[in-house]
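Example record

The entry below shows one chain as it appears in the dataset: sequence first, then C-alpha cells.
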Amino acid sequence: MRWYTALPTAAVAAGASTVAYASLYERTRWTLRRFDVPVLAPGSAPLTVLHLSDLHMTAGQRSKQDWVAALDGLQPDLVVDTGDNLAGHDAVPALLRSLDPLLDRPGVFVTSSNDYYAPRPKNPFSYFTRTTKRVHGDELPWRGMRDAFTGRGWLDLTNARGELTVAGRRISFAGLDDPHLRRDRYDDVAGPGDRTADLRIGVVHSPEPRVLDRFVADGYDLLLCGHTHGGQLRVPFYGALVTNCGIDRDRARWLHRWAGPAPERPAGTWLHVSAGLGTSPYAPARFACPPEATLLTLTAREP
C-alpha cells in the first residue's frame, strides 16, 4: 500500500523539479554554438557570421542583454538577425543597448511576428494543431527598432535584396517577411542569386519549406532562419515535440542540408536554424534546449 502512495508523490516531485529546472535555470543558460560551413570558393579565407534570433527581449532581462552585448568580443565579420526581437512595448531601448556594439559591425535583419505584435497567452496544445485561429496582440514599436537598425547601417532584408562587402568579400542577400504570418513576398526577390558575388545568403524568420525550396532553386549558398526555438521543450533521445512551422522535427535547430526540389542542385544548400535566445513571457521555460546564439565560420569548399 505504501508503494502505491509513494508513486504519485514521486511523480509530482519529479515534475516539479523539471519545471523548476526548465523555468529557473535552463531558460537563462545562455549558450554559444559554433559550426563550420564550407560555402566559400576554394582557397578563400574564413569569414565569421554571428546569427541571432528570437531574443523576445523584455526591459528587465538584464542578464540576456549583458550576454548579447558581450558577443561583440567574438569580433564577427557579419551579424545576421532573423527576427522576433521584442516581447514588450518598452523593450526597444533595452534591445538596442544589448545590440549596441554589434550595430557597429556589418549586419542584416528581417522583421517577424513578435516584432510586430505583443505576445498573448496561448493554449500550449494549440502548437500540435493547425486549426487554431490566429489572434494578434497589440502592435509593438517595431518601426523604431527597424529605423535604429538601418540608421546604424544594417540592411533591412524584409522582402528585399541587398549587398554588403564584408572582409573584402562581396555578399549578395535576399530576405523575406515572416512566412508564419503569410507576409512573405518571394516574387519581390525572386531570380537567381548574383553569381558574380563571393557568397549568396537567404534570410527569413520561419523556415517554411515552400520558401526554402525557392531559395535553393535560385542558387543561394546558405539559408539562415529562426522561429522554432529548437522545439523549446525537447525530449532526450527524441528531440523537438513540435517546430511551429512546416519544417521537420529533425531540422528544428542547427546546421543541416536542405535539398528542395531543384534537380540542378541535388545536394541542396546549407540551412542553419537558430534555437534562439528567448521565450514568450507566457511560456518562460526551456528543456534540453538552452537559449543560443551561433557563430558560423564560413570556410572554403573542397576544390
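Notes for this example: Residues 10-16 have pLDDT under 50 and may be disordered. DSSP finds six helices and 14 strands in the chain.
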